[in-house]
């Protein structure tokens, strides 16, 4: 198939950037979206031009590194699919495809389609961990976990931290990401100990990074490649309110 | 101070304020509706109710001040949160695509809210302050009086509502405002449960339905009054 690409090109963080149009002839429908970009980049390199910079790592939908807004939707709008797992068969011959980076003030563009997601790392550093002292391995059956809690924690733990929720939200809110992390740790006995402190610290860091606020539009869960539910945000809101009250006046 | 700082400075704190004040306003809106619907029981009932409120200064003034503070907090957090949301996405996507899965109501909360706020100002001038210039009826609502069955002289709320809603322009604006309030609440009620953390997978669908039913019932209830006057059912 033959495609036309409208790609965001930006030399560095200070460059204002602009769209460039490229022909992508001879694309095989079984290629993934990133393989299609690899082909286009080969052609650009052969022509002595600068290839399009984009992020990828595992290319099997588990690392959360790929981050493309395809035709206005993060990861391209196929349900539960990352951009690296998106196949060209979902497009038609002759299509024009617009490709942009995640757009959010806390995710500055470094080059072309690559953004700096260090803000997520700083949120995790603020409280997205369980403090475990070293020592003997505890008996596995010593800590009972309710199956329902384990399931819910696992649903939240699916989050791969790609940032599509931020990219899709009209307010560039990071609350789906933060709530998934807060919930997956807070639901399990090891993480419950630091539950209140974690909620306060991670939310404070999220605010400091400059993300927007949830208005319950549901865009985040609609584009999430791991189908994390927006109900985790409601859970985080409750956790935060309790933590705030427990702190005292 | 920790609690106040958390509520007023943090993102989730402001969402809690938004939800708490929104819920308080919703309760008022329901109570106010129940009061107003007494128009269908005739002038004696409605005017006795009006007189009861007006003559209890200890009730009406704390309620008014409380409502004013609640509206002010709701609007303040709405403006702060919206400003933060705008700042978080300085560069829009090409062609401004509609955000995935977002309902119309959820995307226009600020707009529906601000129009409802302008309606509240008009409504207070119209029926509370009774500014003659805004009622388009060419009469002074202050002068309408009524004698209750027990002989007490009081303000004729019944006659005022009839005279007020006989003006199609005024009734039309009331209907429009109530429709926008309905739109606001169709998203707002479920959003409030979400913001307060009172929602999970099991309850989420029921809470959405509840929000739509409450919003629809409030619209029908409020709309019935100007419509009944315009069509002459209540006269
Ligand atoms: C009678 C008047 C009003 C009632 C009953 C009402 C009710 C509500 C409720 C229940 C919510 C949900 C709270 C939440 O987001 O968690 C809400 C949200 C909101 N309201 Fe109001 N409101 C009223 C007036 C206004 C006004 C005057 C404004 C304009 C400044 C406004 C702007 C907003 C905004 C921006 C939200 C947030 C929407 C969101 O987070 O999705 N509201 N309102
Ligand atoms: S590259 Fe790892 S999820 Fe796409």
Output the strand order for the largest sheet of chain A.
2-1-5-3-4
Task: Give the amount of beta strand of chain A, in percent.
Answer: 5-15%
Specify the biggest β-sheet of chain A.
5 strands, mixed
Distance between the termini of chain A: 64 Å
CATH names the topology of the largest domain in chain A as: Fumarate Reductase Iron-sulfur Protein, Chain B, domain 2
Radius of gyration of chain B using CA atoms only? 20 Å
Total tally of structural domains of chain A:
2
Tell me the overall shape of chain A: elongated
The overall pLDDT average of chain A reads 96
| Radius of gyration from the alpha-carbon trace of chain A, in angstroms | 20 Å
Number of helices of chain A: 9
The SSE string of chain A, one letter per element, is EEHEEEEEHHHHHHHH
**Percent strand of chain B:** under 5%
Low-confidence stretches of chain B: none
Largest sheet of chain B: 2 strands, antiparallel
CATH architecture of the largest domain in chain A: Orthogonal Bundle
How is this structure best described in words?
The complex is a heterodimer of chains A (249) and B (235). Chain A is of the alpha+beta class and 249 residues long. Chain A has nine helices and seven strands, in the order ββαβββββαααααααα. Chain A has helices spanning 33-46, 118-127, 147-157, 164-168, 175-186, 189-192, 195-209, 219-223, 231-246, and strands spanning 3-9, 18-24, 69-70, 73-74, 96-100, 109-111, 114-115. The termini of chain A are far apart. Chain B is mainly alpha-helical and 235 residues long. Chain B has one domain. Chain B is built from nine helices and two strands. Chain B has helices at 2-9, 11-36, 43-55, 57-87, 104-107, 109-128, 157-165, 168-195, 204-230, and strands spanning 145-147, 153-155. Chain B has a two-stranded antiparallel sheet with strand order 1-2. In chain B, helix 6 crosses helix 8 (168-195). Chain B is elongated and about 65 Å long. Chain B starts with a helix and ends in a 5-residue tail after the last helix. The model of chain B has no long low-confidence stretch (mean pLDDT 96). The chains are: A alpha+beta (249), B mainly alpha (235). The interface between A and B is large, with 56 and 47 residues.
């Amino acid at each position: 198939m033959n495609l036309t690409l409208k790609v965001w090109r930006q030399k560095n963080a200070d460059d204002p950037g602009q769209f460039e149009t490229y022909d992508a002839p001879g694309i095989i429908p079984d290629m993934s979206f990133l393989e299609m970009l690899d082909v286009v980049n080969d052609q650009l390199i052969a022509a002595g031009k600068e290839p399009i910079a984009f992020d990828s790592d595992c290319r099997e939908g588990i690392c959360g590194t790929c981050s493309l807004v395809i035709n206005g939707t993060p990861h391209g709008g196929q349900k539960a699919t990352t951009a690296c797992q998106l196949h060209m068969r979902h497009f038609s011959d002759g299509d024009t495809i617009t490709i942009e980076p995640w757009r959010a003030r806390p995710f500055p563009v470094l080059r072309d389609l690559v953004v700096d997601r260090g803000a997520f790392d700083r949120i995790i550093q603020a409280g997205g961990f369980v403090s475990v002292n070293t020592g003997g391995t505890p008996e596995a059956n010593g800590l009972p976990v309710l199956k329902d809690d384990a399931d819910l924690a696992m649903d939240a733990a699916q989050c791969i931290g790609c940032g599509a929720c931020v990219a899709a939200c009209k307010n560039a809110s990071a609350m789906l990401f933060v709530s998934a992390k807060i919930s997956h740790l807070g639901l399990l006995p090891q993480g419950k100990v630091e539950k209140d402190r974690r909620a306060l610290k991670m939310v404070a860091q999220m605010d400091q990074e400059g993300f927007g606020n949830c208005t319950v539009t549901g865009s985040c869960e609609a584009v999430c490649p791991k189908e994390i539910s927006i109900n985790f945000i409601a859970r985080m809101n409750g956790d935060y309110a309790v933590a705030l009250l427990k702190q005292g006046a | 101070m920790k609690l106040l700082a958390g509520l007023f400075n943090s993102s989730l704190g402001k969402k809690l304020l938004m939800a708490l004040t929104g819920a308080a306003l919703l309760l008022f809106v329901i109570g106010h509706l129940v009061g107003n619907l007494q128009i269908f029981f005739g002038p004696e009932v409605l005017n006795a109710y009006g007189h009861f409120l007006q003559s209890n200064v200890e009730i009406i003034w704390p309620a008014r001040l409380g409502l004013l503070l609640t509206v002010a907090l709701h609007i303040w957090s709405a403006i702060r949160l919206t400003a933060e949301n705008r700042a978080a996405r300085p560069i829009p996507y090409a062609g401004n695509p509609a955000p995935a899965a977002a309902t119309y109501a959820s995307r226009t909360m600020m707009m529906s809210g601000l129009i409802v706020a302008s309606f509240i100002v008009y409504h207070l001038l119209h029926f509370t302050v009774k500014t003659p210039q805004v009622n388009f009826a060419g009469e002074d609502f202050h002068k309408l009086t009524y004698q209750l069955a027990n002989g007490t002289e009081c303000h004729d709320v019944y006659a005022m509502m009839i005279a007020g809603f006989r003006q199609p322009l005024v009734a039309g604006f009331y209907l429009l405002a109530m429709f926008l309030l309905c739109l606001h609440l169709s998203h707002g009620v479920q959003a409030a449960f979400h913001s307060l953390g009172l929602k999970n997978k099991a309850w989420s669908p029921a809470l959405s339905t509840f929000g739509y039913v409450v919003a629809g019932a409030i619209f029908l209830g409020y709309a019935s009054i100007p419509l009944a006057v315009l069509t002459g059912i209540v006269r």
